[in-house]
Every structure is written in C-alpha cells, then in structure tokens.
C-alpha cells in the first residue's frame, strides 16, 4: 500500500466520521505530501526487484469488514 493511498484512506474516513471537513482534508493531504516526499528521499537505495506492494493484513481486514454485522460506514 502506498503512503499516498494510506493517507487518502485515513483522510476519507476522517471526513465520513465528521472529524475534518473536505477542505481541511485537502490541506492535510497537501502537507502530508511534503512529509511523504521527505521520507522517500531518505530511504535506503534498492533496486526494482526489491520493491513490492504487499499488505495482506489490510486486505484481510477489508474483506472481513464488508461482511460484519456492525460496519463503520453504511454508504
């Protein structure tokens, strides 16, 4: 899962829960991009064979969420 996708997902949940508004979420995302860029710039070097996206726990949680009796969002 990319840092951008994770951030967007968290901000989307925050908007749906009423914690932040749409404009505040966009401001937070803009600021987060600078933080993400800084983190990526300081990562150790690796070749393309080492890069992968593997988040089985997130995928399993998403699958379980859609079949639960009590869901966080009903949209």
Detailed description of the structure:
With 75 residues, this protein is mostly helical. It has helices at 3-16, 22-41, 56-65. It contains three helices and no strands. The longest helix is centred in the middle third of the chain and has 20 residues, at 22-41. It is flat, with a radius of gyration of 16 Å. The relative contact order is 0.12. The chain has one domain.
**How many strands, which pairing sense, and closed or not: the largest β-sheet?**
none
- Counting structural domains, the number is 1
Q: Kindly report the average pLDDT value.
A: 83
The total of beta strands comes to: 0
Low-confidence stretches: none
GO molecular function, one term: nickel cation binding
InterPro entries: UreF, UreF_sf
Protein name: Urease accessory protein UreF
């Amino acid at each position: 899962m990319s840092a951008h996708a994770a951030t967007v997902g968290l901000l989307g949940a925050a908007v749906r829960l009423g914690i932040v508004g749409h404009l505040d979420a966009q401001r937070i995302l803009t600021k987060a991009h600078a933080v993400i860029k800084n983190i990526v710039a300081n990562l150790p070097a690796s070749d393309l064979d080492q890069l992968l996206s593997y988040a089985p726990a997130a995928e399993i949680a998403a699958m379980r969420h859609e079949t639960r009796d009590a869901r966080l969002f009903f949209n």
